[in-house]
Amino acid sequence: MASDALVPETRVLAIASHVVHGYVGNKMATCVMQAMGCDVSAINTVHYSNHTAYKQVKGTKTTAAELEQLYEGLRQSNLTNFDVLLTGYVPSADAVRAVGKIGRDIKFNAGTKPGSFFWAVLDPVMGDNGKLYIPEDEVPEYKRLLREADLILPNQFEAETLSEIPIHDLASLARAIHVLHSTYRVPHVIITSLRLTRDNQIPSSRPVTQPHTPSAEAADPLSSPPPPPPHSPAHEHDQVETLTIIGSTATSDFKPRLFRIDTPALPLFFSGTGDMFAALTVPRLIEAVSTSPSEQNLRNTPSWRSPDDVAAEDLPLAAACQKVLASMQAVLGKTAESCRAKMDAFDDAAARAGGGESETKRHLALMNASEVVVPRHVRDLLEPPHLERFRPRAVTVAI
Amino acid sequence: MASDALVPETRVLAIASHVVHGYVGNKMATCVMQAMGCDVSAINTVHYSNHTAYKQVKGTKTTAAELEQLYEGLRQSNLTNFDVLLTGYVPSADAVRAVGKIGRDIKFNAGTKPGSFFWAVLDPVMGDNGKLYIPEDEVPEYKRLLREADLILPNQFEAETLSEIPIHDLASLARAIHVLHSTYRVPHVIITSLRLTRDNQIPSSRPVTQPHTPSAEAADPLSSPPPPPPHSPAHEHDQVETLTIIGSTATSDFKPRLFRIDTPALPLFFSGTGDMFAALTVPRLIEAVSTSPSEQNLRNTPSWRSPDDVAAEDLPLAAACQKVLASMQAVLGKTAESCRAKMDAFDDAAARAGGGESETKRHLALMNASEVVVPRHVRDLLEPPHLERFRPRAVTVAI
After folding, report:
1. Region B314-319: what's the mean pLDDT?
2. Residue B112 and residue B114: Cα distance in Å, rounded?
3. CB < 8 Å from A in window 327-356 of B
4. Chain A residues near residue B373 by CB distance under 8 angstroms
């Protein structure tokens, strides 16, 4: 098909949550991947009015039977030859099992063509800040998914839970990633939003001090009380600091090849940034793998895993993350700016009205103002600005 | 918000069907309007695996109560200040009533600011080729919606049903549109995909000779047998002819101001083109109204209705349709080309295998190959090529 799109024709199945208003889950992932030129088929695991950080939401969940029925509809019409599967929040253990069956079916059918199917798992085990967001019985189901995945994007707490290694510095982080590579046989791992101190210590994920961009649909407001709000207005004026992402593509003996990219943290908390990161990473990785100078054709290599002689900072995964972070920094920076202006106007209006706006009304306005309205920022996604500021560096630690 | 988008910040609520695979209903409308820079909130009226022209589909419908619940979720968080409402297929009379309540609530809240809310209704009454696709009891509910609408996009059969005037030439078409303007108080009407003869006769919509781009989700395969397939493979090789769209913006006394644009018909039937037309028209109309040379500020005029001294061919609606048709011709032309190549490959493979592919398998392959994969064609949406070929002309007939 004639196209000026970034990536070759790419069919993605995205299984995650739908929100009517705002940009998290599949709403974010679909919009971002379509902007990058992907043909995205979306199976929605919940249908909510908005994301849960608003602290109030209405809607319904999709049952495991309904998920399986939709996939069966695709299967009977020969529509399941997906190149990529992206899975995010799934609302029950049964539904995670259904997603596993779907993924394994696609993978099985692609089995004869190495590299023709790639499975990215966002937010495995679904927890943050020292707290599981999902029922305990979902954890083993999520762990089973991981063993099929080509790329996982856990946060610090999830990486600790999966590896059973507490992360407190780069060496323990490297050990945890090593376990993820070797135990779960996951070739690619990215841990986003780490807050490293100057001497490369990593504060525990347990006490809630700073949010680590939890996926906003992680909590289940329809059947249990929401988690502690990650969005208290106090965070609006946090001072700028640094966020680090650490990525790794395993070598053939499942050793980590670690790179890091540091970005200035923005003085605002956004929902859906994990979903945005994952949705940008998939097409950027396809782009990097397709244009990789390696003699091997990575697109036909299982899991697009680079040969052992490729250094960490030269990995396609590192090149992808560099572009992803440059795009996100630009989009989130503009969103922070417009959010600040909207909240100043809100506060001015409230002051003129005698200061009578409730804390709840202000919180709702802040949530709305901090939505990342992707369709207004497509150019920054396609042409990541200031790429040189996000150069990946190899991390060398003894593990 | 800093943006290079086509339209000013525009919040759209789109209420229509979702398909996992392919591009019809809300899947088409959301993707198109996001590509044009709109912030689209999508309430999905069905969740189907694919569109119904595949002749097999799985999934579920959204109940009226679920639709109302999602809207109530938006309302309680102050998220209902939409600029535009686009409504399409709704699966039951109860659900149409729910959509009516939603639309009237948004309209009521926007009441103090003329022109700040615009309601477009796609496929009113849902029928084609002389046949209703919906239960009889939905028709009065759809008619009630129309009285609220600013723009409707009926097909020939729907225009006949609503106006109770059989359309057989330009004069009867003009009379039908006059009735739509005056009886339903709809300021803007567009009738797409008319097949006019050389002497401007319009064949009856009753006998099925050529499909008039019915909305692919119109049929209800989950509770009734699907309508006669509009996509039989025989249509692949129909010879090129002309399709005409007729549009009108009413004068202050509800007289039609008619314009026409003729386009070469493509030798292939596509699903979702009505949805694509509507989704492109909304942002293009906003663009045309915002840049209109009229002394009156149309954006602050109820229904963005031009003053009486604006000629038919100079209407913002005509300017919008010109760009919409130029974009669609480009995208559908490329899709037809790629479809032909894919079907040739399919037929070659079948011939090599001894000609053993079933008619069903070929039909499924054809449906898939004729999907309009919007994310691969965003440039043609943003920069409509060969605009001069789609110049609107005034239609002057005595009515």
Report:
1. 97
2. 6
3. 334-335, 337-338
4. 1, 39
B399 occurs within a structural domain: no
Q: Is the pLDDT of residue A295 over 80?
A: no
Interface residue B369 vs chain A (CB under 8 A): no
Closest Cα of chain A to B128: distance in Å?
Answer: 25
pTM of full prediction above 0.80 = yes
What is the span of the domain harbouring residue A193?
A: 11-203+240-394
| B358 and A CB contact within 8 Å | no
Indicate which CATH number applies to the domain containing B174.
3.40.1190.20
- Judge: B66–A60 Cβ closer than 8 Å, yes or no: yes
pLDDT in tens, B77-114: 999 999 999 999 888 889 999 999 999 999 999 988 98
Give yes or no for residue A212 having a pLDDT over 80: no
Quick one: tokens of A119?
């499975």
Please classify residue A127 by burial: count the beta carbons closer than 10 Å to its beta carbon, then call 0-12 exposed, 13-18 middle and 19+ buried.
buried
Cα B52 from Cα A77, distance rounded (Å):
11
Answer with the residue of higher pLDDT: A21 or A358: A21
Domain total for chain A?
Answer: 1
* Pairwise pLDDT comparison (B2 vs A60), residue with the higher score: A60
B40–A50 C-beta distance less than 8 A: no
Burial of B358 per CB tally in 10 Å (0-12, 13-18, 19+): exposed
Question: Are B77 and A375 an interchain contact pair (Cβ–Cβ within 8 Å)?
Answer: no
Question: Do the domain assignments include residue B359?
Answer: yes
List pLDDT tens digits, range B207-249. Answer: 433 333 334 444 444 544 333 333 333 344 444 488 999 999 9
Mean per-residue pLDDT, B105-133: 84
Length of chain B: 399
Question: For A158-195, what is each residue's pLDDT tens digit?
Answer: 899 889 999 999 999 999 999 999 999 999 999 987 88
DSSP count for chain B of H helices, then E strands: 10, 12
Whether A34 is covered by a domain: the verdict is yes
Q: Flag whether residue A370 sits within 8 Å of chain B, measured between CB atoms.
A: no
- Looking at chain B, which residue has its C-alpha nearest residue A34? B375
Q: Using alpha carbons, select from B330, B380, B374 the residue that is nearest to residue B34.
A: B374
Q: Is A136 a domain residue?
A: yes
User: Which of A47, A55, A99, A339 to mutate: most B Cβ within 10 Å?
Assistant: A47
Contact B56 A79 (CB under 8 A): no
